[in-house]
Write a structure and sequence with these properties.
Elements lengths: L1 H23 L9 H6 L22 H15 L3 E7 L2 E4 L5 H4 L9 H15 L1 E9 L2 E8 L4 E5 L5 E5 L11 E4 L3 E5 L11 H4 L1 H19 L6 E4 L6 H16 L11 E4 L4 H21 L17 H28 L8 E5 L9 H14 L4 H7 L30
Amino acid sequence: MEERKQKSLIRRMAGFVRGIKAEGTSGAGGSIDEKSASALRRPIADMDFGVRVDNKSALKITAYYAGIRIISENVASLPVRVLHRGDKGWMPDSEHPLNRIFSRPNRYTNWFSFVQTMVTWLKDWGNAYAVIERQAGIPVALHQAHPAGVQITRAGMGAKYYRVTFSDSSLTRLNGMYSDEDIIHVMEVSIDGVKGLNPVYLNAGTLEKSMAQERFAADFYRKGGNIKAVMETDGSLGDDAYKAFMDHMALASQNFDTPLLEYGIKYKSLDVNPVAAQLLQSETMSLQDVCRILGLPPHMIADLSKATFSNIEHQTIQFVQYTLRPLVKRFEVELENKLLFDSERPYYGVDFSLEGLLRGDTAARSAYYHNAILDGYMSRNEVRELEGYGKVDGLDEMLYPLNTGTVGKDNNEKSE
């Protein structure tokens, strides 16, 4: 029996892979479009939970919405800056024109909202787009474009072109065909390097299961399935006795009195309803499935079942390292390639600063800064900046312990 099940599963997986190859290579340049992506959403034919999910309805799943909100807000809250590489290494350049865009990318959106919107689209649709508005070749604005309004085509030598359609009437002037150089395109996992895969389509079974569970739970509780107790008796009650008993119970309940149990009836309390307990377990499993899709530690969306005081800080640091860092790197690379001139790229870069999220607790930061200052690789003003304080005159000099120095050199200044 087990061997037959395994062979059946292998045949289904083989059919799924063949479907990817057949559908994924259609169209110009072999890019996967929404039609072929929809063919990937049901690799197993009998997986049907009675509901359908799309990118909009998926956000009605509490865990999915909360996860995307946490990721997008964290990325949007990161300080972004233009760096310049000089004699002293990479240093912030507050005079570069891109700083204006990183403050207000367009007239109707601030930078926080712009990044939050782009990350939301990226995690929900697998792609995020923005049109670059230029004046005399210089970028002056970024206009976020909904993924549903963007189509990618391939031309000779594999060049990408984007047909962008804005639904907002005030932005219809931006509708048209754009070359790759004029579009910010950040993508999630991709199998062709042209367009990111839609995570909702690929994980439709998991998300539909979560929605089906919520519907079942609603029906269960609405129909009185949350049974707290039962009443039992050794014999059977006639219609008259049953009606009299129920009338007495209803009257006692209305007056908040303690009912008197007649006819040998006993009240038996149920500590945990088995169906309700199974619903809770299923909801926990669905929440963890969503966390796997988004790369999110469960404790960040209020699942503390596996969290402890000792590991929750390390899980948060891993969230920064393995979820946020690759995500912001996608943005950094795309912004550098599309917003900087060829002559600038060797000397300028874009940086989303993650240091603030990796600082740890107060005791850990204090020990780190203490060693950094005494070992001479950070100044006291650099520490103050990281902690959000202003610079103080006289704290830019590097300190080092008096009992250390370069071999063969005198560290003491000799007065003449």
